[in-house]
Amino acid sequence: MFASFLLGLVIAGAIYWWFQMMITAQQEKNAFLQSEIKVLEGQIKEIATIEDEIASLKARQKAVEDLQSDRNLPVHLLNELVRQIPEGAYISSIKQSGQTIAMQGFAQSNERVSEMLRNLTDNTPWLSKPELVEIVARNINLSQKEQRRVSAFNLRFRLMRTSEVKGGNEPASATQGK
């Protein structure tokens, strides 16, 4: 009976020792995994900062590309105004705010203003959404004795960016100028 007790004690000790070895091995594996997780978390933070830097660089690159492509917009604006403004219409003021152009001027008649609006709507890819803000009949002095009745107009339209125009048909003269 004592031998059975000792044999049972040895078997129980062996099982206890085996479980302790398994627990120690698992704890070592867990410690290794924890250290590797910390390394990966550091790498994830680095990747996140690199992704932020990449996004920032892409934003800067897009800004530079937009500036580069838009540098000829004033030329296109003036070129298109020369083409689209009919004879008998004169510009007295042009102001740009962002992509919106506000223009004031005089025309010999309301029909000239209407023709100019049609031209700005249909004949140019660089200018869009013309809007007549105001048209008023005025008298202007040509000389001390001569006066002429004209239509003073105030209109707005949008100047299209180069990237927006390239999506459609670009005028032949604009492609020759590049």
SSE arrangement:
Blueprint: H1 2-70, H2 73-84, E1 89-97, E2 100-107, H3 110-122, E3 127-141, E4 147-159, H4 162-167, H5 172-176
Antiparallel strand pairs: 1-2, 2-4, 3-4
The biggest beta sheet reads: 4 strands, antiparallel
Please estimate the helix content. 55-70%
Shape: rod-shaped
| Strand order in the sheet with the most strands | 1-2-4-3
Q: Write the H/E string, N to C.
A: HHEEHEEHH
Distance between the termini: 106 Å
User: What is the overall number of helices?
Assistant: 5
As a percent range, the share of strand residues is: 25-35%
**Uncertain runs with pLDDT below 50, 5 residues or more?**
170-178
Q: Could you characterize the architecture of this molecule?
A:
By secondary structure, the protein is an alpha+beta fold. 59% of the residues lie in helices and 25% in strands. It is built from 5 helices and 4 strands. The chain has helices at 2-70, 73-84, 110-122, 162-167, 172-176, and strands spanning 89-97, 100-107, 127-141, 147-159. The chain has a 4-stranded antiparallel sheet with strand order 1-2-4-3. The model is unreliable at 170-178 (pLDDT under 50).
Can you give keywords for this protein?
alpha+beta; 59% helix; 178 residues; single chain
Outline of this structure?
With 178 residues, the protein is of the alpha+beta class. The protein has helices at residues 2-70, 73-84, 110-122, 162-167, 172-176, and strands spanning 89-97, 100-107, 127-141, 147-159.
